[in-house]
Prior knowledge:
By secondary structure, this protein is an alpha+beta fold. It has a single domain (1-44), classed as Single Sheet (N-terminal domain of TfIIb). 14% of the residues lie in helices and 20% in strands. It has one helix spanning 37-42; strands at 15-17, 20-22, 29-31. The chain has a 3-stranded antiparallel beta sheet with strand order 1-2-3, with no helix packed on it. The longest helix has 6 residues, at 37-42. The protein starts with 14 loop residues before the first strand and ends with a helix. It binds zinc ion. Zinc ion binds at residues 7, 9-10, 12, 23, 25-26, 28.
Amino acid sequence: MAMLNRCPKCNSELKLVADMQICYRCDYWTRKGTARLDFVLFNM
Ligand SMILES: [Zn+2]
């Protein structure tokens, strides 16, 4: 499953929070899918 780095609505950078990716500009968010949750948690 592909990971988004850019918001599909406003094209700003998505922030990774737990297992979700959030856009603070337009409040868009998406679940990250199956990729490497362990790596994300250690880098918060
Ligand atoms: Zn956005």
